[in-house]
Amino acid sequence: MRRLHNNKGFTLLEVIISLAILGIIVVAILGLFTSDLRLIFFAGHKSEANIEAQAILDKIYEETVSKNLSSLSSEIDSIFTDMGLDSQYEKVTSQANFDAVFSGKRIRYYLSTETLLSGSTIPVVSLRVYYNDGERFVTITTPLAK
């Protein structure tokens, strides 16, 4: 009988090394997808917080524009209550408190005044909505005057 000597093909060692290299490449590619997916979720949460902040400010503006400055704070509080957010917000009385660390309330607002070039003052409300368990936030500021 004749023996066939066929040296074409791969040895076991070559196959194992090529599988190891392929595995390293696949793990690296999967790592990229995982970080991208995390960024997509962060962007989605930020968009939701932004939409919520804008909706709240729209409601505040609509209900309080050109109202008396002394009654604005209580009117804003009643708007939060009407929107069902009475246990989720806090009112702060200074910019330092507004910029303070997350206190457990999802929404924080600060009512202040700005002086215009004409010399008149207008009320300004700053609203901050926290997301991702208070790790991140969105801040929107708007004047409450026509």
In a few lines, what is going on in this structure?
The chain contains three helices and four strands; from the N terminus they run H-H-E-H-E-E-E. It is an alpha+beta fold and 146 residues long. It has one domain (12-143).
How would you portray this structure in words?
The protein has 146 residues and is an alpha+beta fold. It has one domain. It has three helices and four strands. The protein has helices at 12-64, 69-82, 95-98; strands spanning 89-92, 107-115, 121-131, 136-143. The chain has a four-stranded mixed beta sheet with strand order 1-2-3-4. Helix 3 links the parallel strand 1 and strand 2 (107-115). Helix 1 (12-64) crosses helix 2. The longest helix is centred in the N-terminal third of the chain and has 53 residues, at 12-64. The radius of gyration is 29 Å and the shape is rod-shaped. The protein starts with 11 loop residues before the first helix and ends with a strand.
